[in-house]
Structure formats: structure tokens, C-alpha cells
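for the record, two folds in this file. i put them one after another cuz i was lazy. first one right below, seq on top, C-alpha cells after. the second one comes after a little note so u can tell where it starts
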Amino acid sequence: MAAVPVYPWRLAPDGLATVRQLRAIGLRPGGQDVAAQMERPRRRRAPLVAYLYEVDKAKPVRPMTPAKWAALAKANTARRTCPECGMDAGYVIPTSLGMCVTCAFPEEQRAA
């Protein structure tokens, strides 16, 4: 395996982009290997690393199918449904509570 070039943060040459930058222009890496990486030094910790891909080898993002849209909607509904009362909370249930705020703190809801 050949070593990839390392560039200082924000000084990568044109034609290379991170996954987020590719997604912003409607592309994905498409199975290509990492072309380079950027490193941002930090005090007393390991540097931040961003992997770069070649823009000309990137492929278009695959469109969402109706089945994927339905699965995503079902998953989001499950994240909003309280397992205690079965109601749609209108927000994503915090994993720290495991239930909606109304079920987690009933005495505070009665006082309000």
C-alpha cells in the first residue's frame, strides 16, 4: 500500500474534496481509494484528519427510491413514538430518558 500525501489544513490542491464537499455538489466517492489527507494539528491531542477524494473520479449520488423514503419515514416515526404511552411526542425521544418528557417527569407536568 502506497502512502497518501498529507496536506496542511485548508491547503489541499484543487480537484480533491472531502466526502461532505462531494455530497454538497451531488457526488459520492464511488469506491475510489483515499487520494490524500489533510491534517490539522491540535495541542496535546492527535491531529484532526480529513480524507480527500478525487472529484473527477467521483460518481453521482444514487437517488432515493420510494422504498428507501418509506423506510426512513418509518424509522423516524419510531424514534418519535414513546414506548410508555404510545403517543407521537413530536420530537425525537432522548435515549437518556427512553420515553417522552411527559412520561419521564409526570409530577412536573401536573404542577405546570
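(here's the note) second protein begins now
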Amino acid sequence: MAETELERAEKRYAQAKARLQALKNREATRQRKLDTRRKVILGGALMDLAERDTGAAAMLNRLIRNLPREQDRKAFADWGTPSPAPSSSDPEKPS
């Protein structure tokens, strides 16, 4: 039995809908990866700054203490929070 025009149109519609959903899924995955990358970069920058600046070290300590989830706080249980090395230079200006 030959496929009718309506059946062909429905088939094309279903294929187009599947392609659209796949594109949406890829974009959502790309956005999640970008968000994760930004968080990792900022976290590393904050940790680096905390080694040079007492204000940043205090903020990092507060952030860790105020993490809402117990399992997140446990991740930092054995981690030594960086404390700035004593220095007479301004921590905001690179040497």
C-alpha cells in the first residue's frame, strides 16, 4: 500500500520535531558545560586570591562555613583554607 501525502507529511513533521529536540538538548548541554567551566575558573581565581589577600581568605572561609549542604561542607573538611603570606606589598598589585 502506497504512503499517502498526509502520512509522508506526518513522518517529516516527526523527524523535524526530533531534530529540533536534539538541537535543544545539545544547546542545553553546551550551556551547562560553559556554566561549569566558569564556576571552576572563578573558584580557582578565588582560591589563588585568598593566598594573597586576607579579605579574600576571610570571604572564602565564610563561604565554606555557610555552604547549605552538609555533603558540600564535607568536601572541604580536610582542606586547609589558604592564608595569605605576610607581605609588605599591596595584595592587589602584582610584584
